[in-house]
Amino acid sequence: MGVPLLLVDAFTDGPFSGNPAAVCLLPAWRDDRWLQSLAAEMKHSETAYLVRNADGFDLRWFTPAIEVALCGHATLASAHALWEQGVVPADAVIRFATKSGTLTATPRNGRIELDFPLNPEEPVEPPAELLPALGVTARYVGKSRFDYLVEVESEAIVRKMTPDFRRLAGAPVRGTIVTSRSTDPRFDFVSRFFAPAAGIDEDPVTGSAHCCLAAYWQKRLGKNEFVAYQASPRGGIVHVRVVNDRVLLGGQAVTVLKGELSNRTVESAG
Hints:
single chain
């Protein structure tokens, strides 16, 4: 039997929008060089690898350049792939063992809901190159476990940004979130996410960034539920609920491509 490899658009209800992720269902773990080589070949912001365990699935995420500790859209894509492929029953909760602890995916009201750890930021003085690289003036700068968070004055600024990615790649973090209140009454806030140091100039829709955004806007807006829009060229909608120290991220996904790795690829040493 071949090794399934799927391309799934996450945080969208239609193809060619949201954030694409490759999902590879492995029978057993391969070495890190092989995993990184396939992710580089796929060229998507993340490739997710799944191996069944006694409680669900082990899950790891690789960008084209590095392994990351947390990824929302590729987790959503993985759950979608497991249900759609019939690997698990369509109404089953899926448990993922990851570098960020146990994460779950639950089918709820026509969406997939991910249970992730809240990742609050703390105010910091930005590195000298950060704001010039972004080309913006900040209302606020904070730093979470993974990323810088920059609030700017308006949604128009978020949408029109053209960062200098070479300069931004020098920031000593995974990536940078830029956010503001939304002018669209359908959404509470908007954001964009840049991670050139991780091999991703701009990520289309970033579930893990919303673990930080949820904590930030909870303090600013005084509520626990949000509808967020990530204003990348592809765009995507994330439904967000804060419950104690967890954040529930809701979205949809669409399979764009199904295939199998060739025998030569599977047997390769990387």
